[in-house]
């Protein structure tokens, strides 16, 4: 029996820190400002860090570090990035038996551009995690879980949100949800309908 099973993205994060990145102000941007580099120039990087990220895997790692028995359900690419995700989760004690690989898309990546002033922007490459379908979820092996934690589900994987919630309700599994844009905008009516089946709602 698992204390908690997490659902959501599994990514490789690349943290890039450079004092040569500049903040410019312009009404063209939603926030009124942007991180910029000189066109045609060369930017030197002071710090470059590779790590595993993603809503589903980050939370799986956090729960495992608290001593809980945790499994992650999701898709990674059949590539080096996916292998690194597997290695890091496995080393932290997260059960990776429900994590599948696919040749349809690479493992997702996020490039985090950071300035010394703490300003940052994130470049996101979606990828394998967003291709998860109901057929990729080992339903029979999840019935004894105590909790499900569902992070943002985007793209094709957003269609699994309702089935996961309904499965949890049918099997008396408690549910914590940190919804993403698809749940709050594209599928907002479905989300509202499922609210009564959610035990903990996290909105950041």
From TrEMBL:
Keyword set includes Transferase: yes
InterPro entries: Carboh/pur_kinase_PfkB_CS (IPR002173), PfkB_dom (IPR011611), Ribokinase-like (IPR029056)
Pfam family name, one: PfkB
Any one GO molecular-function label of the UniProt entry: kinase activity
Keywords attached to this entry: Kinase, Transferase
Carbohydrate kinase PfkB domain segment(s): 41-204
Name assigned to this protein: Carbohydrate kinase PfkB domain-containing protein
Organism: Candidatus Portnoybacteria bacterium CG02_land_8_20_14_3_00_45_8
């Amino acid at each position: 029996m698992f204390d908690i099973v997490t659902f959501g993205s599994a990514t490789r994060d690349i943290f890039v820190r450079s004092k040569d990145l500049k903040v410019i102000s312009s009404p063209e941007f939603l926030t009124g400002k942007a991180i910029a580099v000189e066109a045609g120039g060369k930017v030197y990087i002071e710090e470059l860090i590779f790590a595993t990220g993603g809503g589903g895997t980050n939370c799986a790692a956090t729960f495992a570090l608290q001593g809980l028995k945790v499994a992650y359900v999701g898709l990674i690419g059949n590539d080096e990035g996916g292998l690194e995700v597997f290695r890091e989760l496995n080393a932290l004690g997260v059960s990776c038996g429900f994590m599948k690989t696919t040749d349809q898309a690479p493992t997702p990546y996020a490039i985090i551009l950071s300035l010394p002033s703490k300003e940052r922007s994130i470049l996101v490459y979606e990828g394998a995690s967003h291709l998860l379908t109901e057929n990729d979820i080992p339903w029979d092996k999840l019935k004894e879980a105590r909790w499900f934690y569902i992070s943002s589900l985007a793209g094709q994987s957003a269609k699994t949100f309702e089935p996961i919630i309904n499965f949890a309700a049918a099997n008396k599994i408690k549910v914590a949800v940190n919804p993403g844009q698809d749940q709050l905008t594209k599928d907002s009516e479905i989300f509202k309908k499922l609210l009564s089946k959610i035990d903990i709602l996290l909105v950041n």
